[in-house]
Amino acid sequence: MSDRSAEWDKYLLGSVLFISLLIGGGTASGLYTDTLIEVLAIISGAAVLSRPSGQRPHHSVVWLLALAAALVILQIVPLPALMFKGLRPELLLADSSLVGESRFRFVSLGVGRTIECLLYLVAVAAFFLSVLRLRTEQVQALLPFFFMGVICNGLAGAIQYSLSDNVAIEGLLPFTINAGLFANRNHFAALLFVSIPFVVYHGLFRGNLLSGLLGLATISLLLLAAGSRAGVLIGLAITVLSVVFLSARSKLSGFGILAIFIGLSTYTIGAWSKIDARAIDPDFGRAEFARTTIDGIKENWATGVGFGNFQKAYQIYEKEGMIFKQFVNHAHNEYLEIAFEGGVLAILLMAFYFVLLIVSFARIRRDPLQKAAFLSVSFLLIHSLVDYPLRTAALAMTFAYMNAIIFHKGFADRSRQKSEMIEVDHNGDKLLVPIGNSS
Description:
Layout: H1 3-23, H2 32-49, H3 59-74, E1 79-80, H4 90-93, E2 97-98, E3 101-105, H5 111-132, H6 136-141, H7 143-163, H8 185-205, H9 209-226, H10 229-247, H11 254-273, H12 286-299, H13 310-317, H14 334-361, H15 368-383, H16 393-407, H17 409-419, E4 421-426, E5 429-434
Antiparallel strand pairs: 1-3, 2-3, 4-5
Helix pairs in contact: 1-2, 1-7, 1-16, 2-5, 3-5, 3-14, 5-16, 7-8, 7-9, 8-9, 8-10, 8-15, 9-10, 9-11, 10-11, 10-15, 12-13, 12-14, 15-16
Keywords: Ligase, Membrane, Transmembrane, Transmembrane helix
Protein name: Lipid A core--O-antigen ligase
Membrane topology: Multi-pass membrane protein
């Protein structure tokens, strides 16, 4: 692939990532902004994937994506009704029959919602595979696009919090903006804390210690202002781990590390004041959502209810005393929701992904950017235990980009080449030259 094509690919995919962070913060279904992002991602991915490249993704990753797409497609294919006998409650069987023909049924309780999820998956997968096709330096070059998106969200959040404790912006996007450019303050907090390892990487390994410290302090203050309990705790933990995990192979001075930990101590005090143990899980809270969702999983473990149909199926298992004016739109636990919607096959695919992620950890220990991406992905997955961040296009595309960094083969090849070279001083410049074999 020519250098000019590589540059175009970088700007093309970088623009998709940046646009996703600007307008992809909604959580409702059927948003035109999400559709726009999906179309841009698919077109950009098709353009990049259609060109020849020296980079090839791991076969296991491709298989995972193919199986995930096949599972979603299976849910919208008419299947013999006899297959569902005994695998699904009779109440749900009434909603999944093919119109005009009772001999066939769909796995999905709402085919339209599942098709929306399929488009969402294809868009994220196309973006992920496209980044895997780039050279390592081009993958790194996407990081400024991510930083620009985070900065724009941070500026929006700072303006909101400086005006009032609760400023909702309506009419700008097809959803109400409540924090940064997101509809949900927890998802805004998630974007902030997943950017922390990259900010630390920027400060430690790019020679930008001052700007890295300023960025870290700003993100910490915004997390406190956002008031997300999970975001505050995860932000603290990911900052500590990023400094310890990434600084092991950097040249950061002792004074820099001391300054960071002093700041962390101050931040801990502010984080503790944000947490009220009595408000962590009230009677109508995440524990109740989880219990009800697990009840639904037990009765639909074989097939699931169809991706995108959580809200419709959840109401069937909801206790009478838990029905209020506000309704439950998500399980606030990504893994339980996926298991409820996709059944045992979805559980197996999640396990497959976690195995691949753990195996990849052994390969990325030498590259600081991959280590930063691994930390961000890990904490986003932890946050998914108590929320649904990956249901927003902004965080889904960010998640795809970070996974592409982790699973990119080029970083390992570059580390191997560096181990076979030696740094020499040439007219004041540091050059890497191959180590000659002695005869």
